């Protein structure tokens, strides 16, 4: 599993408009879990922006990452036989992380995380589609309206981030059904799923421990 600092990505390049949309959705989905969640483990931190925002909202955050240069609380490589304390974290969150592992290893990691979490896993995965998204805003309505069409690229095997991702949901061999089966076999049920029409590349799942 490659460390993100080794890629030489600048913060200004990483914090794009799309990533800020994704960050908003991460915060929103976590907050919707209410007072069931206080202690959170965030895996895959890069610039710690989500960590900082969650701390401002009163959450107790522990960070985990493979990259020691990011100074996480826990050096954590999901591709290894890692250990975490059971039932310490109300939620474990990892956004755009699992696809950096070969799929078989991501399934093993998912099963271990399902054991370690007290209640929830909140994840996002890359969703490789051909899409059309239109947002309509007008002064008489406080909320925008959307038209969104997404067709998974089931004919393709090439991820959008082909140098960093082993797989992406929607590609040939990785239909959404396969991912859902992996969740179920890990002892997790889908509590909520969400796709933002303005940034449909990140598909969110709120998973509850069975």
From TrEMBL:
InterPro entries: SAM-dependent_MTases_sf
GO biological process assignments: methylation
Domain of life: Bacteria
GO molecular function ontology, one term from the record: methyltransferase activity
Keyword annotations: Methyltransferase, Transferase
Database matches in SUPFAM superfamilies: S-adenosyl-L-methionine-dependent methyltransferases
Protein name listed in UniProt: Class I SAM-dependent methyltransferase
Gene source species: Cyanomargarita calcarea GSE-NOS-MK-12-04C
């Amino acid at each position: 599993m490659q460390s993100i600092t080794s890629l030489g990505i600048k913060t200004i390049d990483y914090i794009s408009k799309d990533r800020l949309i994704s960050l908003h959705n991460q915060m929103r989905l976590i907050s919707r879990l209410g007072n069931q969640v206080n202690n959170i483990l965030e895996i895959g931190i890069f610039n710690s922006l989500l960590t900082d925002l969650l701390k401002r909202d009163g959450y107790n955050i522990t960070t985990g990452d493979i990259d020691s240069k990011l100074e996480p609380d826990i050096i954590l490589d999901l591709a290894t036989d890692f250990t975490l304390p059971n039932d310490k974290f109300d939620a474990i969150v990892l956004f755009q992380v699992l696809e950096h592992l070969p799929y078989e290893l991501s399934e093993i990691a998912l099963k271990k995380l399902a054991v370690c979490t007290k209640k929830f896993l909140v994840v996002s995965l890359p969703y490789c589609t051909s899409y059309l998204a239109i947002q309509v805003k007008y002064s008489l309505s406080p909320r925008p309206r959307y038209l969104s069409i997404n067709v998974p690229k089931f004919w393709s095997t090439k991820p959008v981030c082909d140098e960093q991702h082993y797989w992406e949901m929607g590609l040939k061999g990785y239909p959404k059904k396969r991912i859902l089966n992996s969740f179920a076999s890990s002892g997790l049920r889908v509590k909520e799923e969400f796709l933002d029409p303005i940034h449909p590349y990140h598909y969110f799942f709120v998973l509850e421990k069975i």
